[in-house]
Every structure is written in structure tokens, then in C-alpha cells.
Model the fold of this input.
Amino acid sequence: MANQTILVTGGAGFIGSNFILYWMNNHPEDKIINLDALTYAGNTKNLASVSDLPNYIFVEGNITDRELVDRLMASCDIVVHFAAESHVDRSILNPDTFIQTNIIGTHVLLESALHNDIKHFHHISTDEVFGSLKLGSDTQFSEHTPYDPRSPYSASKASSDHLVRAYGETYGLNYTITNCSNNYGEYQFPEKLIPLAISHILADKPVPVYGDGLQVRDWLYVQDHCTAIEKVLQSGKSQETYVVGGLTEDIPNIEVVKTILRIMKKPEDMLIHVTDRAGHDVRYSVNWSKIESDLGWKPSVSFEEGMQKTVAWYLANEAWWKPLVSANAAYFKKNYQGRE
Ligand code: NAD
Ligand code: DAU
Done:
């Protein structure tokens, strides 16, 4: 797979920018075109270290813009599609943009991919499309789990997965899909639990935990997600799905927050319980044995190591996240006010 041109959508976001940095470091022979609308979640600062390289091109634009997408795809071999509205709480407050970007945007990309004979369309999706597992059970999501999305966000991602598969079945598109669990690490927008907790602690504010905080997520360090995508791009089977996850044990949200408080040497009473999220999925857990046995991938960073690295990064990069908190004050107020 040498000297390929890859269209990355949403490459200025959290996972997309980590992926571009990883890919350019490990595959310097390839060219990356990053198409990103720079919504509240997009940040070109993440890519400062590659922005002047001749094999990196940034294009500010929307994936729903068919003319632009066609023009870019004309020179591309591969598409890696990250662009999405990604935050569940925002989808509860305002679902419209989730439908536009996650469903309509994906459809535009698929049409353009067919029209431009794209060799490989890789769709980044989420384990949230599978719904909610029973707390305390040992069941896990796998490639065979039926879809059961329960939030506007996960329903829009589920729709996009169905569209990708339909373009494979109906028109022969060479696609792969990864359904990944909760990522954490550098450059994550401080609206998601882990960076939100770190930023609150640094501002000496209590950390809001929804409901009883016994909900469970399957946490994956973002660099491990990047290596999973790399494996699928290099040797994934056409029209196959791979679920990707990190943990082999259940860690409730309150334990995640307590881990952060311990690492930051702060008291546990900084954790406060607030009104629960509507339709809150209680448990995610991923059985990633297929990608392990078929492609030889497994996570390499333990939860403790990943959390240490993540806390250290946010401590050293206040200049990155503080302006985002101020610029998004209206959202934080709308989501959290009156919850206590
Ligand atoms: P993010 O919100 O940090 O970044 C999304 C990026 O997409 C931003 O740069 C934004 O500007 C861009 N974007 C949004 N709408 C766009 C549009 N219409 N046109 C062009 N660009 C647009 O998201 P993330 O956490 O990096 O997630 C990336 C992908 O991975 C998403 O598809 C998400 O569903 C999926 N995913 C995320 C996680 C997670 O834990 N964060 C886990 C599994 C899957
Ligand atoms: O599972 C993959 C998904 O993980 C991705 O598809 C999404 O893009 C990503 O946002 C993430 O969704 P979650 O809703 O699981 O992530 P979030 O960080 O918002 O919440 C994690 C858990 O923490 C969840 O149980 C809700 C809880 N929570 C979250 C926030 C923001 C709190 O208790 N308090 C909070 O303030």
C-alpha cells in the first residue's frame, strides 16, 4: 500500500487528528487530504506538526458538499471517514446536525466514492449502535450483535453503517467498517467524560457524574484505535466489519473519575452525582477477538498507563483546552445547569 492518496474526513477532530499524525509518521510515502468543516470540535492546532509537509493538504469544507467531495475524491485511492457529530449529550439537545452530517454526509461520500472508483472506503463507527448491555452481565458486543441504537447520535451512526453496507451489497463498493468503543487520550474535546473531569479538577470545580455513576464503558487509548484502523486498511477483508475495544474488565464511571482524582492527588468528594442522561446506555463491552485472530491486532496500552499519559497531556496543554471551554460556555451551561 505504498504511495496512496487518502482522503480523511473529520481529520481535525480528536481521533481523526491522532490518526493523521500516526499515519504520516508511519507512512510518509502516502499523501493525506484532510476534509474538515471545523465545527466546534475541529481544531487545526492538533495538526500543526504536519501542516507544512508537502504530502499533507487541509481543505476546510463540509462532507455534505457533493461538488467539493467529488473534486477531492477524483485524486484519491482510499477514504477514511471520521467526520461526524460525535457527542451524545449534544444529540439529545439538538439532533438536527447529527442527521445532516452523520447520515446525509455519509451518503454524499458513498455516492462520490462510487463515482470516483475509490479502491477502499473505510467507515469509522461506534459500538453505541448496538445499544445497551445489562449491568453485571458478561455479555459483550461482537460483529454479530443486532443493532439497537438508543440516542439520536447512535441512531444516526447506525443509519450510516447501514448505508455503507447497502452500497457494498447493491453497488459493489469495497468497504470496511470498524465499530469502536470509547476512546480517550490527547486532543479529546473537553466535553467527553475523561477530559471534562480533568478540566473540572484543574479548575477546582466538582466533577459531574450522571445518575449513580455505575454505568460502564469500554475504554480504548486513542493510539490503539489508530493501529486497529491501520490493520484494517492494510489487511482487512472487503465488506467486513471489525469491532474494536480495549478493556477486559468492567470499570464503572465513578471508578474512572476516582482514578483521575487519584492520579491528580485530589479528594474523592470532588465527584458529585447529577441528574442522569436521558436514555443513558448502562453498559458497553466489546469482544474484539475477530480483529485479533484475523488481523493480529490487540490493544497495547493498559487503562492505568493510558490514564497517566492522558492526565499528563492535559496538565501540559492547558493552552489547548482552556480556550475551548470558554468558547463553548453556552453549551456547558445548557447541558449542566439545573442538573445538580
Ligand atoms: P470529534 O467530534 O472530536 O471530531 C469530529 C470532526 O468532524 C471534527 O473535526 C469536525 O469539525 C468534523 N466534522 C463534523 N461535521 C462535519 C461535516 N459536516 N463535514 C466535515 N467535517 C465535519 O469526533 P471523534 O471523537 O474524533 O470521532 C471521530 C469518529 O469516530 C466519529 O465518526 C465517531 O462517531 C467515531 N467514534 C468515536 C468514538 C469516541 O470515543 N470518540 C468512539 C467510537 C467511534
Ligand atoms: O462508545 C463509543 C462512544 O463513546 C462514541 O461513539 C462517542 O462518540 C463518544 O462520545 C462516547 O460516547 P459516551 O456517551 O459513552 O461518552 P461520554 O464521554 O459522553 O460519556 C461517557 C460516560 O460518562 C457515559 O456513561 C456518560 C457519563 N458522563 C458523561 C459526561 C459528559 C457523566 O457521568 N458525566 C458527564 O459529564
User: Anything to note?
Assistant: The longest helix spans residues 96-115. Residues 86-89, 126-128, 181-182, 192-193, 196, 208-210, 215, 217, 253, 277, 284 surround DAU (ligand 2) (CB under 6 Å). The first strand starts at residue 5 and ends at 9. The chain has a mean pLDDT of 97.
